[in-house]
Amino acid sequence: MFSFSSSRLASAALGAALVVATAPPAWADEALSLDEALRLAQQRSRALPAQDAAASAALEMSVAAGQLPDPALKAGINNLPVNKADRFSLTRDFMTMRSIGLMQEFTREGKRSARAARLEREADAALAARAVALADLRRETAMAWLDRHYLDRMSELLRLQRDEATLQVEAAESGYRGGRGAQADVFAARSAVAQIDDRLRQTESQTLTAKTRLARWLGAAAERPLAAPPDTGRAPIDAQRLDAQIEHHPQLALLARQEAMALAEVDAAQSNKRADWSVELMFSQRGSAYSNMVSLNVSVPLQWDQKNRQDREVAARLAMVEQVRAQRDETLREHAAQTRTWLQQWRINRTRLGRYDDTLIPLARERTQAALAAYRGAAGSLAAVLEARRAEIDTRMERLRLEMENAALWAQLEYLIPPAPTPDGTRHAGTQEPQR
After folding, report:
1. CATH code of the domain occupying 30-70+108-276+306-430
2. At 288, is the secondary structure helix, strand, or coil?
3. In principle, which of 120, 141, 275, 402 could form an S-S bond with 217, CB 3.0–4.6 Å?
4. pTM exceeds cut of 0.85
């Protein structure tokens, strides 16, 4: 039996094990950089393996499509009597035969190659769809990470302003007790603190929403503190080479692969205009008094109405090619215009941010300092101080919102084009394609 001390020791060990089991992982407090967030999102994604599986399935099917159809084994009884004296006899009537045969359809090599090529193009399209999914994943993860970063900064700014506003409340209360201020100044100062608290709660609610968005891509890692943001002040897209760069947009690449797949379907439809032959060899056994027989049959479909069947199919496939080409041209124009708009807005916002840093924020800060100095020197009112402080907070918050908006534009541009392949054939940022 366990002694009392043994029981206490076992309980302590169990408690320690539970503490270890429920303790957060060692990396929980490590700062989460944007690059690490992108890597974790890609590792956690299920959309990328799904596209890999689709490509693998199409490649497997392309191998099968290049083979001849399976031969068919036939067995049967022919000309079996069903009445009179020879009813159901397999040997008495000379016409009764027990037959076994083998039939093979000989699909033309060109047709099999066309079908295999069409499935290979389908695999290429699946890989292009994977690139689209990867670009979407990286962009959405980056935007969620940046949203949370700037909302954290807004909360930090509001807390600092609240601390200063709290000191103002204490000063107003002290002045009122000393007969140097009015009670209305105390209420005004407290109202300013309450307003900051309300804005702080609103910002914290938005931060929780941003964490939820980030957790959609990262899981539990979204709760980690964030590292310093990337440099969003550099242009991700060269305006002079925009038309050339936009050609590498993943959706355009996907449409190009779909066009190639449509062309392969045209080839397959044209190959169907030549019928396939089938050959059947059959051995038939009769009664012992009669000779056995061998039959050889050849069959071929009669394409007597090609203009309304095979030609119509080819025309339909050609129309699909034109459809995909038109969609690609329209998508190219749309993305080029959208990207130019993003780039122009990003540049305008950069100019506005410089104006905030050089003019608006320094003026708001000087106004607050001047109003505070006048109030302390009994030459100004507390209302003027509170109004100046509120204007400074608004200016700083607007600056952060503008920077947050510009960071989102930067993310749209930065993750618009997939990483380029390296000289050794691999891709940066984990964009390797599955091996065929």
Report:
1. 1.20.1600.10
2. coil
3. 141
4. no
